[in-house]
């Protein structure tokens, strides 16, 4: 504490403090001064006009001024200047009428920092009642304010990513629902779940997973508009609330969000990348719903996107949803549907793309619902998973498939049928007895025409038991296939220990292999595993002629997908088989020699580059791919390994010319885009596609082929 003030000010201080602390000062002046000096609150003493006569150390620390800089100033000069004359008038009025004022105000420290304070002012009067001094107690609230802000932050924001959490999301969603109700517009709730995030955590550790989440959380808000909200619910799940979207704008915003979440993230020397499954619901709806129901709807739609193959989006359909029905009701309704024979099987053919042979079909269950029409499996199977009714339904599927085989065989169509089997059903102790009973009821069907598929990522709790079941099935002629191979985390273990005859490559890798080098690498690796373990490889998700061509170049002939046929009733398949012929290019396509596979990968790298350019032109993605002919990944291959291996071939020069031409077109298109001439830029994409096709043909002329 500073020394006692001298002169007139010091005398006024003694008088003021004596009056302020009353008899305590008279009886023990040392104690009074100790209280003044050690008080944690700032203490300020002014004369009757408000001029400062003294203050304690706590007040100088709050203000950041030395004591000598405060003495002699009017108390109102210590306020920030943010307050108008109304505040000082109110303080003076209260002090005049009641000798006391208490409130909060903004003060300014010597370095210019603004901070909130609690201020208590008391008038001190002499024995005759005349007002001589004012005593002020000042408490810095900035620490409390920071604490309040911190508590508010942790209550409403995710601590890892800084995005809003569920509490703040629901609040904003409720406000958005009120807004669109008033304006007569629509909002969209999109529930995002990252595909493959668990694998990243398992492979690189949780720290890498957290860093990936932080990187994506920084990107995703930039894909949205200022009126939209993106929140993290926990784990790898995010929710976006999008205001006033029509269908066309909504597709663009969702695509931008998908790109932001799925673009690679570089962590040191490791490149991490995930895809994203999105569930979408809209508000308002025909029935009134609240914010929590919208979140549950979008969550359910996201789950359906997962079941549909991941890296996709699904729209919630309130009319077909079973979320309004509890599980007990759903189970009872499905049992009733079994009794009423409301379930039917559709069949998707499996073909040898090179020879055109139809060697089998996959049985796919549908529910011919009397009110809702034809329902797909993901509309009714999830609620019964792991329940006895799922076993009843599974047994019905096998029986119906055997009945269909009898009908086909009777008219000369001798193909096999594969049936999906749940892990719960497969691991039941009575499974083999039930299967033998079903086969015995159809003696005209040899067991070898029945194939059972188990999902590779399903929860097989007792792998030894499953292996015994598969061997028992093989002994009676029934075959097994591992479905969705490559999506689980025990692929090699299952492949080694489960004696399945076939591997069905998951459709997500097949669908995106044309322009995703990573998916192509996975697919090529699975084909290598199938060959090493002497298993048949069947590619799911063949949607186009180009998908089939690339698979044939890799040596994979067996496939199913919409590019071959959509699922159809059993009665229609017979007619389809008699009429179907494979595309001519499939029958003439040859397998590429293994040493020339880098050319195929280079071709896919180029398609991936072109897709990124499309993202810029069509969807407004701000970062274009490398535009120099030598800097893109295809260019690095072309002028590196490609030139070394193929540079002496006449067609190599044609590849170089086509590649340079594509980059010239691309730069012209980007110039149009940046100039705001988007329609012209989009129109020019067709020229780019034609050049891409010419480049592909030139590339294929470089490679050698092998007989099948």
Unreliable residue runs: 1-27
Q: Helical content, roughly?
A: 40-55%
**Text of the CATH class of the largest domain:** Alpha Beta
Q: Which strands sit side by side, in order, in the main sheet?
A: 13-14-16-17-18-19-20-21
What does the largest sheet look like? 8 strands, mixed, barrel
Number of extended strands: 24
Gap between N and C termini: 97 Å
Question: What structural class is derived from the secondary structure elements?
Answer: alpha/beta
Domain count: the total is 4
**CATH topology of the largest domain, what is it called?**
TIM Barrel
- Give the overall shape: elongated
Rg, please?
37 Å
Question: What does this protein structure show overall?
Answer:
The radius of gyration is 37 Å and the shape is elongated. The N terminus is likely disordered. It contains 27 helices and 24 strands. Helix 24 runs antiparallel to helix 27. The protein has four domains: 140 residues, Beta-Lactamase (2-Layer Sandwich), CATH 3.30.450.20; 164 residues, Alpha-Beta Plaits, CATH 3.30.70.270; 230 residues, EAL domain (TIM Barrel, Alpha-Beta Barrel); 110 residues, Four Helix Bundle (Hemerythrin (Met), subunit A) (Up-down Bundle), CATH 1.20.120.30. The N and C termini lie far apart (97 Å). It is 49% helix and 20% strand. It has an eight-stranded mixed beta barrel with strand order 13-14-16-17-18-19-20-21, surrounded by five helices. The protein has a five-stranded antiparallel sheet with strand order 2-1-5-4-3, with helices on both faces. Strands 7-8-6-11-12 form a five-stranded mixed sheet, with helices on both faces. The protein is of the alpha/beta class and 708 residues long.
